[in-house]
Amino acid sequence: ERRRAMYIPPVQLKKTTKIAIGELLYHATSRQHGREAADRVITGCQALDEMRGHVVTVTNLGIASASPEAVDRCLTYLKALDYVATRLDNQPLSGNVEWRNAFRPDDLNDVARLPSVPLERTALICTLANIEGALGYAAVTDGTDLRQACSHFQRAAGYYNLLMNQPVLQNVTMDLTHEALKCLETAMLANAQMASFTWARQRGTTDATAAKLAMGAHELLDRTERLAASPSIAQSGIYQRIGAPCKILGMYYLALAYDRRAAACDSNHDMDEELTRLHEAQKLCFTMQQTAPRILEFCDTSLRSQLMDGIEKLTATLGQRMKTAESDNLSIYRVKPMVDPPKIEASTIVKSMDVTDILIGGEVDSRVQSVFSGLLPKELTGPIREYAKMDEEHVRGQTKVLTEKSMMIKDIVQELETTIESLAAEQENPSTTQADKAMVEGVREASLGGGWDYLEKTSQQVLSMATDAQARLAQIQSNLAREEAEDAQWRNDPAVASARPRSFDVTGNYRGAAGRIREELEVAAKSDAYVRSLLETSKVLIKGLPLPQDVDGVAQKRDTGELLARLKALQPLLARGKKLEAEKDALLKEFMDTQTLQYVDIDKIPQEAAAQKAFFEENIKSKYGGMDKRATSLQSEMATFAGTTRKDLDALSPSEDQTRLNRASDAAGAAEKWKEMRQFQAEGIKFYNRELEII
Questions:
Q1: Do the beta carbons of residue 646 and residue 412 sit within 8 Å?
Q2: I need a surface site. Which of 184, 219, 383, 529 has the fewest CB within 10 A?
Q3: DSSP letters of 304-340?
Q4: Per residue in 401-435, is it b (16+ CB within 10 Å) or e — as a string?
Q5: Which residues, listed in sequence order, are joined to residue 431 by a DSSP beta bridge?
Q6: pTM of the model
């Protein structure tokens, strides 16, 4: 599965120009809170300039800079900016912030310019989404961690979804419009679904469930392609980058759905539906082969090559499966293909992640918080101002810890949902079929037979024999020509001519045979060239054959009992994870609601500074004491849950038998192509041996 991993490529990062954001925020502070207050936040403004400089570096490097560190830098700046914005009451900036279109990041004219913190914030969230998408793409293409890749894709979708549900900004670039954001969200979900399909296959899911997952991927890909083709955004470049690959990938996953459904029918001996599904899949592959070069004409070259290679592999695998099915039907079932097969139900097990906790959790940079925290509403004066500051910091601290713990729970709950959805549809799996055994044996034969190395060596042998045959024939024909010339010279002497047999009478049969052999070698040379071209186009496919030990030992039974028992154990864990998330949300709301209550009675505040602080601390303790205890208990519960549940999920490794069978299934097309090429070469060697013997 990893060798043929194909996903929607990531969108480039939005680029921005360097601006003195600190100076703009200084002037905004001065307008709202006065010059004196603005002077007190200068160091925080300088820190914001530094943070934005890091973001500019990340965006200028593009998706090549996508990394957890890049995410941290964007989040650090965003959280600091959000904190400052709470002190400025939507004050407009005295200068513009500028962000380019992510679909055309190098176009200096395609840019949004607004004196607006909301534009800065929106562009930052879009950048985070694009980075998460790039991280997911990197994880699936190098096969490092499909679960992590799925989280990246769903997190990216969550950021896009968040932007869609925010107030609409005017005069923004095309990538920030509602239509484009919806397309990008759906694309990320499609990537997550494709990763989930591969992950489920590796974990030994049944063919029936794999078909539903593939159909879910098809529907998301089809939806993404239609969104990218929307007239309002189609000219932005999004169709060439996302829409076109989705059109081919959508057909590809529909073919996979038919293929997996056919495999399930094979296990259940439903030969009539199996034949129909295989035929449907083959028709889709033919359509893809005919249309993909045109549809993908303007796509990235490496992606186009990867997609075409995947189509070739699937086509070869389906060809082998169809041969086996038709043979079984002829000898055993003798049924006609099903005319109107039932629709394959789609199972979509991914969703956009709620990223709210990511944005509100964690600490605000101390250089910013320490100076901007003093910018409280003007009506708060004297000691009560200090109390309000302590009150806010207490709630912010609890929010930070709870959201950090919750982010671990959120990832685990998402993974639990994915795993349970994948296993929930599992049916009791029958014995390994005869077709499975034949498929495994075919792959073993090709691998033990030397794979690509054998074919390459044999191809050289055929070429050498052809060259040798042509050289020997040329020598014979040269000798015959010399003999005929000498005969003509001797016949000038009447005495010799009368006694010497004519050369034609002696060598005529040889010349006729040589002529026939020459014609046969010319025809054979054309056949050899054709076989060599077939061999070259199949090189990548055949080189992907697994080692014999990687497919050996497929058991007679695929034991799903243990997986189903684990499924039952995972369901209460999911319920507990969701309950912890709900408790966290309720507790945070209670903290926020309590913070908005009236402040401490001014008449009871002590005059001496130390006494004031102690009084405020005691008041806060009284105000939040019960909530603080519940927060501590909840944090402990979430940490324990995260640790134990992670172990349970990690233990859900795929059965070794199923893993081996999956490898064999993936390599079936390569094995069939290997056998076909070996047969061609064997016929070539046989032909040249006969020709050389005659020569």
A1: yes
A2: 529
A3: HHHHHHHHHHHHHHHHHHHHHHHHHIIIII--PPPSS
A4: ebbbbbbbbbbbbbbbbbbbbbbebbeebeebbeb
A5: 557
A6: 0.71
Coil/strand/helix, residue 505: helix
Task: Return the SS3 of 109.
Answer: coil
Task: Work out whether the CA dihedral 106, 107, 110, 115 comes out positive or negative.
Answer: positive
Q: What's the rounded Cα separation, in Å, for the pair 304 and 218?
A: 19
pLDDT in tens, 470-516: 999 999 989 988 888 888 887 777 777 777 777 777 888 888 889 99
pLDDT digits (tens, 9 = 90+) for 376-410: 765 555 677 778 778 888 888 888 888 888 888 88
The one-letter code for the residue type at 606 is P
Residues 6+ apart with CB under 8 A from 589: none
Rounded Cα distance between 673 and 695, Å, is 33
Return the DSSP state at 362.
S
d(CA 87, CA 28): 10
pLDDT band at 234 (very low <50, low <70, confident <90, very high): confident
Torsion-angle region of 89 (φ positive above 0: left; ψ -120 to 50: alpha; else: beta): left
- List alpha helices for 169-238, DSSP H: 178-202, 207-228, 238
Token couple for 502: 């004519």
Q: What is the distance between the alpha carbons of residues 43 and 22, in angstroms, rounded to a whole number?
A: 9
Structure tokens at 365: 């940079």
In three-state form (DSSP H/G/I as H, E/B as E, the rest C), the secondary structure along 565-582 is: HHHHHHHHHHHHHHHHHH
Strand partners, 112: 99
Dig out the tokens for 127 from the structure: 């950048």
The helix (run of H) or strand (run of E) holding residue 690 is helix 656-694
Through-space distance between the first and last CA atoms of the chain, rounded to whole angstroms: 50
Query: From CA 137, how far away is CA 64, in angstroms rounded?
Result: 12
Residue closest to 280 by CA, chosen among 307, 306, 308, 261: 261
| Parallel/antiparallel/unpaired status of strands 111-114 and 97-100 | antiparallel
